[in-house]
Write a structure and sequence with these properties.
Structural class: alpha/beta
CATH class of the largest domain: Alpha Beta
Number of strands: 19
Helix content: 25-40%
Number of helices: 12
Strand content: 15-25%
Largest sheet: 10 strands, mixed
Low-confidence stretches: 432-450
CATH topology of the largest domain: Rossmann fold
CATH architecture of the largest domain: 3-Layer(aba) Sandwich
Shape: elongated
Length: about 450
């Protein structure tokens, strides 16, 4: 029987401080206040002095409140019945469905030893050309989406949730506006994707400290699904709100601040979540896409700056589009050479020509006379932006590659693209469509074309 304490020494924000013995870091406690019993967690120990973070907030907790330590850490329930359900940041049902209590799973466990992980090798198809063609998402990868407030990053996540070729979607929202929560719920339900998804949503009206639980709950559940053989995609938005909640708690506890007031262990806290991305040998995988908003579009802000050291690339969302310059998937080479023999060639050629288009726009803005080549680049750039970069475009990888060839053929002569002759003969659009001279019905190319493409990349 655990001892019950009846005296709180201090209440600072959502943190209460008391004297207690035989308490461990991370242990849970039940705090009985005037508004009922609240759950709290030990976040700091100084001898017998214990700091408890109250998840529902400290309002209504008097200094003579009863505090009972539970002798265990934070857990969340796991079951196949989670699919199609919506919960709040503490794991309580938001959809008025029954609570799920079976299989309590600890939160915040250690990541898988890198030595024991499978090397990433499988593509995650999303139907978005700027991802599938140019910065391929790889199973078990961890990637942030760098953006600013006002950009459609939640709409992008919803598109990915609908179209990604995975088994389970785990969506975690931190500090969401209620409209954004309703958008996710209604959009996934309307398009039939809610049945394979689990949502953990913390809104801006909820207690701030509950935002800290969302990534841990999402990743603990994702890990259990992955161990049962599922390919899991974890979508988190917004990790800056998660870091701001950490910052608020650190200030309350009077910790010595680091850059811009964030706690000194910001990097470790972020890494502990991102490193949950893994491909289990003989089981499933966890892939993480997490939105990180950049205040003032400042990539040197502590949250995106630390994130960049942890993750394997990034997507930049600007002007409602995924920016081709700056966006990077460091693992795309693991898979895009295995998709279709022209994949890397289309990727490299189209980006090179788009860079030339951006230079032509600068020349045009400065009043330079446009040459015939410049006019071709302008036509190409407009088609690339509207047909490849627009987030409303939804194409399978093979059709996106065929579209790339069609855009090149509409704007340039074959010899102007710099593409190898063997690939042009196989894929350049003719009277019978792309690949009429060489590719099969499935879009594949003869073996000699794959060898030619590999030589061109080399």
């Amino acid at each position: 029987m655990r001892k019950i304490y009846h005296r709180i020494d201090n209440i600072a924000g959502n943190v209460i401080i008391l004297q207690a013995q035989d308490v461990s870091y991370g242990e849970l406690a039940a705090v009985a206040g005037t508004r009922g019993t609240s759950l709290a967690q030990v976040i700091r120990l100084e001898g017998d002095r214990v700091y408890l973070q109250v998840f529902a907030g400290s309002r209504g907790i008097p200094t003579d409140a009863q505090v009972r330590f539970l002798g265990r850490g934070m857990t969340t329930s796991f079951s196949e019945n989670l699919l199609g359900r919506i919960f709040d940041g503490a794991g309580r049902p938001r959809d008025r469905g029954p609570e799920i209590r079976e299989n309590p799973t600890p939160l915040g466990g250690p990541p898988v030893n890198p030595v024991r992980r499978v090397i990433p090798r499988n593509m995650v198809r999303t139907g978005i050309p700027m991802i599938d063609v140019f910065n391929t998402l790889v199973e078990s990868q961890k990637l942030p989406i760098f953006s600013v407030a006002g950009e459609p990053y939640n709409q992008l996540l919803a598109r990915i949730a609908l179209q990604a070729e995975v088994d389970v979607i785990i969506l975690g929202g931190m500090g969401l506006k209620y409209d954004d929560y309703l958008f996710f719920r209604d959009h996934l339900e309307e398009h039939g994707a809610l049945s394979r998804a689990v949502l953990y949503v913390h809104t801006a009206a909820d207690p701030t400290v509950e935002a800290l639980l969302v990534p841990d709950i999402c990743l603990a559940v994702a890990e259990q699904f992955a161990l049962s053989g599922k390919r899991v995609l974890a979508l988190l938005t917004d990790m800056t709100n998660f870091a701001d909640a950490m910052k608020e708690i650190a200030i309350t506890m009077e910790q010595i601040p680091s850059s811009r007031g964030y706690p000194g262990d910001l990097y470790s806290q972020l890494a502990a979540r991102y490193e949950k991305a893994v491909d289990f040998d003989g089981a499933g995988s966890i892939t993480i896409l997490a939105v990180t908003t950049m205040p003032g579009d400042d990539v040197t802000h502590p949250v995106p700056d630390n994130t960049g050291y942890i993750t394997e690339g990034q997507f930049y969302l600007r002007g409602g589009r995924i920016e081709p310059f700056g966006s990077l998937s460091r693992l795309k080479q693991q898979v895009n050479g295995k998709t279709r023999s022209d994949h890397r060639t289309i990727m490299n050629t189209m980006i090179q020509l788009f860079a030339a288009y951006r230079e032509t726009l600068e020349k045009q803005a400065m009043g330079f006379r446009m040459s015939a080549w410049d006019r071709k680049l302008l036509k190409y750039g407009r088609r690339f932006e509207s047909e490849m970069m627009d987030l409303s475009v939804n194409l399978p990888l093979e059709k996106a590659l065929d579209l790339g060839w069609a855009i090149l053929a509409d704007c340039f002569a074959p010899e102007e693209t710099g593409v190898q002759t063997a690939l042009i003969e196989a894929y350049w659009p003719g009277e019978d469509g792309p690949g009429a001279e060489g590719s099969g019905a499935d879009g594949s190319a003869p073996e000699e074309l794959a060898d030619a493409a590999a030589a061109a990349d080399a």
